[in-house]
C-alpha cells in the first residue's frame, strides 16, 4: 500500500485543486490564483501522482472532475475553510473580509429581485467582498451547502438539515404576468382558467397553482414550462399566455422588460423565504455581514411580510 507523509505534500496543491474544480479549466484557475497556466498544469500533475487518479478529464468545454475529484472536493473545501477561519483569528474584521468571495446559492427569481440591491449594499459596506451568485432551489440547497458548493443559500421553502444554520426571513405571495398590452383587462378566476399558462418549475409538470386547483377539482392548460424565471418575458411575448410567480420576481421582470403584472385571481398559500448556511461558518465575519445585508434587501421586496 502506498504511504504518504503529509510533510512531503505541498499543501498549496489543494488551492490549485479547488481552483480547477470551481473554474473548470487550467487557464481560469491560473488567473484566479495569480500564477501561470504552466504552473497550474505542473501542480495538477503532482496532484494526480498523490491521489493516483487523473482527477480531471479534458472535454470540449474544459476540465470535468472525475469520481475521485467529486469525493475529494468537500474534504478539500472543508480543510481550506478551516485554514481560512484560523487565519481570521489573527486579523481585524476588515482584514478578514477584504478579498473574500462569498458564494450565494439561489434561484433566479431572487437573483433578479435582490441581485443589484445586494451588490450595491456590499459595495457600500464591504467593498473588498466579491459576490458569486449560483443557481439552486430548495430541493438541492441543503446538499449543495454541505458539499460546499456555496456559502449561503436563499430559498423559497425550508433548508432541511439539522447540521445547517437556518433563518426564516419572510413570507411572500404571488402575482400574474402577461405580455404588456394597452387593452389589458383585470384577470378573473374564470378568465384566468381559460388562458394558456407558462409554468416555472424545477420539475416541469406541477406547480403550486395546480395543487390548489386540484383541491377544488379544477385544472388549467399549461402550454409550456421552464426552470428559469428570466425566460418568461420571451416566452410570454406575442401570446395571451399567463404566468404565475412570486411577486418579487414578477415586479423585477416588469421593471426591465415588456411584461405587466396582474393581481392573482385565485387564493394561493404564502411561501416562506429562508436563508441557510453551514454551522462551521457561524463565526465568519464576512458570512455574518452578508446575512445581515440579505435580511435588509429581502425586507424591501414587494409582496413580502418580514418574519420576526
Beta percentage is 15-25%
Main beta sheet strand tally, sense and closure: 6 strands, mixed
Principal-axis shape equals elongated
Helical segment count: 12
Helical residue percent band: 40-55%
Instruction: Calculate the mean pLDDT score and round it.
Output: 89
H-E order: HHHEEHHEHEHEEEHEHEHEHEEHE
Strand order of the largest sheet: 4-3-5-12-6-13
Topology of this structure?
Layout: H1 12-23, H2 26-33, H3 37-51, E1 56-59, E2 62-65, H4 67-88, H5 93-97, E3 101-106, H6 108-125, E4 130-135, H7 138-146, E5 152-156, E6 164-172, E7 174-179, H8 189-194, E8 196-200, H9 208-215, E9 221-226, H10 232-236, E10 242-246, H11 247-256, E11 259-263, E12 271-278, H12 285-298, E13 305-306
Parallel strand pairs: 3-4, 3-5, 8-9, 8-10
Antiparallel strand pairs: 1-2, 5-12, 6-12, 6-13, 7-10, 7-11
Protein name: LysR family transcriptional regulator
Domain HTH lysR-type: 9-66
InterPro entries: LysR-type_TF (IPR050389), LysR_HTH_N (IPR000847), LysR_subst-bd (IPR005119), WH-like_DNA-bd_sf (IPR036388), WH_DNA-bd_sf (IPR036390)
Q: What can be said about this structure in brief?
A:
The protein is 43% helix and 23% strand. With 308 residues, the protein is α/β, with parallel strands linked by helices. Belongs to the LysR transcriptional regulatory family.
Amino acid at each position: 500500500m502506498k504511504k504518504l507523509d503529509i510533510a512531503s505534500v505541498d499543501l498549496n496543491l489543494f488551492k490549485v485543486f479547488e481552483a480547477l474544480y470551481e473554474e473548470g479549466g487550467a487557464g481560469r484557475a491560473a488567473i484566479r490564483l495569480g500564477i501561470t497556466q504552466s504552473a497550474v498544469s505542473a501542480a495538477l500533475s503532482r496532484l494526480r501522482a498523490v491521489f493516483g487518479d487523473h482527477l480531471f478529464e479534458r472535454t470540449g468545454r474544459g476540465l470535468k472532475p472525475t469520481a475521485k475529484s467529486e469525493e475529494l472536493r468537500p474534504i478539500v473545501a472543508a480543510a481550506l475553510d478551516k485554514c481560512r477561519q484560523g487565519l481570521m483569528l489573527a486579523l481585524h474584521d476588515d482584514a478578514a473580509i477584504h478579498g473574500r468571495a462569498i458564494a450565494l446559492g439561489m434561484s433566479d427569481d431572487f437573483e433578479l429581485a435582490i441581485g443589484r440591491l445586494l451588490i450595491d449594499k456590499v459595495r457600500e459596506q464591504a467593498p473588498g467582498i466579491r459576490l458569486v451568485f449560483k443557481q439552486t432551489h430548495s430541493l438541492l440547497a441543503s446538499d449543495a451547502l454541505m458539499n460546499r458548493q456555496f456559502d449561503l443559500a436563499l430559498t423559497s421553502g425550508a433548508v432541511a438539515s439539522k447540521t445547517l444554520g437556518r433563518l426564516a426571513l419572510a413570507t411572500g405571495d404571488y402575482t400574474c404576468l402577461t405580455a404588456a398590452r394597452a387593452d389589458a383587462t383585470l384577470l378573473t378566476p374564470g378568465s384566468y382558467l381559460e388562458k394558456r399558462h407558462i409554468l416555472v418549475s424545477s420539475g416541469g409538470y406541477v406547480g403550486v397553482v395546480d395543487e390548489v386547483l386540484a383541491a377544488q377539482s379544477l385544472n388549467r392548460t399549461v402550454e409550456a414550462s421552464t426552470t428559469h424565471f428570466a425566460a418568461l418575458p420571451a416566452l410570454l411575448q406575442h401570446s395571451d399566455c399567463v404566468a404565475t410567480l412570486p411577486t418579487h420576481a414578477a415586479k423585477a421582470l416588469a421593471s426591465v422588460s415588456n411584461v405587466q403584472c396582474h393581481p392573482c385571481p385565485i387564493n394561493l398559500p404564502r411561501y416562506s423565504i429562508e436563508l441557510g448556511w453551514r454551522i462551521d461558518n457561524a463565526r465568519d465575519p464576512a458570512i455574518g455581514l452578508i446575512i445581515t445585508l440579505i435580511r435588509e434587501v429581502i425586507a424591501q421586496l414587494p409582496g413580502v411580510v418580514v418574519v420576526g
